[in-house]
Amino acid sequence: MTSFDYTLTRTVDAPVGKVWAAWTVAEDYGKWASAEDVVLDVRPGGAWSAVMVIPGGARFPLSGAYTEVVPDKRLVMGMNVPGRDEPVLMTLELEAEGDRTRVTLSQTFDSAEERDQAEQGSNMLLDGLTGFLAAA
To answer: Chain-wide mean pLDDT for the chain?
Structure first.
């Protein structure tokens, strides 16, 4: 079966610990990810949920669970998708580069359309993260 994946990499002007906190502290995550009602239980098997607010005000409830947690290095999150038996996994990898951090997001999908939609959403997430860290 053919798979469709993407990998996005950005280097942000913040130390790795601050970037990790942005992804794992609910209050911080809500600020940069345009999310409300954020709950993050960051441990393998721990659940997460959030209501994403997109431009125009539409709200989308999302939920899932963490499958891998390596503090300050790697976070693998599953997202529940209606109509799918298995969650869609997103991998976040962090690599310290002095006072900066290289952030890599990757996902794999069954169709190019799903991949393209997710890649667009992940670019929006990285834009929000970059802005949040620059203002902090």
So the answer is: 94
Domain that holds residue 95: 4-135
- The three-class DSSP label of residue 111 is coil
For residue 93, give the CATH number of its domain.
Answer: 3.30.530.20
CA distance 59 to 52: 6
Q: Do 107 and 122 form a contact (C-beta atoms < 8 A)?
A: yes
Dist CA 77 CA 52 (whole Å): 16
Check whether 1 has a pLDDT greater than 80: no
**Which is nearest to 93 in space by CA: 85, 84, 102?**
102
Give the total residue count for the chain. 136
Three-class SS state of 17? helix
Distance CA 91, CA 89 (A): 7
Q: How many domains does the chain have?
A: 1
Task: Give the three-state DSSP class for 112.
Answer: helix
**What per-residue confidence (pLDDT) applies to 81?**
84
3-state secondary structure of 130: helix
Question: pTM above the 0.85 mark?
Answer: yes
State mean pLDDT over 83-99.
93
